[in-house]
Amino acid sequence: MKFRYLTPLLLLSLIFAGCNKMLDIKPVNRMMPVTISDYESVLLGGYPRVDYFMKTELMTDNVYANLNIIASAQKDLDLWFTWSPSKLADGVETDPYWGQLYTSIYYANTVLDNFNERQPASNEKELFETVKGEAYALRAWSYFYLANYYAEPYSPATLKAHGVPMPLTAKDVHQNTQNNVREPLEKVYTQIVSDLDQASVLLAGKKSRNKFRFDASAVQALRARVNLFMGDYEKAISAASDVIVNKPLSDMNNMQTRIDDKEDRYAFTGNVGVIDGGDYKNEILFFTGGVANTNIYYHANYMFRPSQELFALCNRSTGGKDYRRYIFATFADMNTNEGKQNGPTLYNMYAKQENPCYYIGLKVSEAYVIRAEAYARLKQKDKAIADLNALLVRRIRKGEFVALKAADFSDETLVSRILEERRVETAFEGGLRWMDLRRLGKPALSHVYKNGQIYNLKQNDNRYLLQIPPSELNNSPSIPLNP
Questions:
Q1: Burial 387-399 (b: 16+ CB within 10 A, else e)
Q2: Where is the RagB/SusD domain (predicted)?
């Protein structure tokens, strides 16, 4: 990379001056970017590096505590599973989720500040537009997560509710270090949509670099997700359709050869997870969030496991053998001491903890369940059923799948079935279950934990919003907190 070197206390500290005191942003180097390639490196440094959504699954009905396991859970996991008002350990003021997402925004803004004033040479135009498009996508992604963690779910009743701070340039960070404000939720979503529109135009027709970076299809998948959460079903259908037309849905029947060779219990364990079997990786559009050696739902010493309620949704007594059960099943003999200790479930998407693998951020099957839900909510039952069948025929063993029929569902039961399939397809991916629970009415939940103690999350509980971190309150004392 071509960097212009300044003194150690200048360089990117000119960019980052004071920003570590606002929004928990932390500089990663002290070099001043100059070329478009330099700014590409800045952008790549802004892609999230922590598992900023896996712990939110602990707050959902997708997880239970297997109390037969001897080892105790990490203290910070307790805080999430029991819906503690604060998810930070005693004496800790910085929230790594808040900090990571605002760091990503800062890096994206740094790129956009420069590129909005820059005219690329003709031989640099493609790289310029690719990097700029990714920067818009990364900023939209980050604001979407911030809004869905720290603000109310989007609805006509919450448009004026407190959203999150929304710096749109690196300069904003310097100017508002001690005077940060939470923009209205409607304004935050308007910006997300605008950024995705920009990203879509800039990345259209560009060659995909790899699945760790946004490309045109990943942007469309994210647009479909955002529009679904906004209740804009026609636009959700349009964006999801663009993904479905251009990207293949994996057929899990391709795992059968390995299953026949290894048998159920040993087909996906050790060094091979479900993501490694068949052609499943082909439908992944975007990996994110750090290597999966922090899979807190797999190892025998970890007590938090996929719930049996979740497992039952892909282990129905009728409709054929569902290959998605291999994502969640131990296939252990529950009549043995070992089986009782291990329990019936684990999260086996990524195999054992030691295997490096990035978390799934966006994939093709999400586009199918988004479009199916949008069709169903618009009372287009036949189209919704067609999408469900297109998904399930690639999840159920060949020769055993029985197509669903519109006549067997009312409008309400069809939406319920689609949401069940969405829950299975997106479990432990992108923090979607927690965000879905929020948008679907913030239902009451309960968890059983140590010594049989029952913890409850009430309907519409204030704890459905994560609290603004103490570090932000210290920097901006007048910033409104969540209830």
A1: bbbebbbbbbeee
A2: 361-482
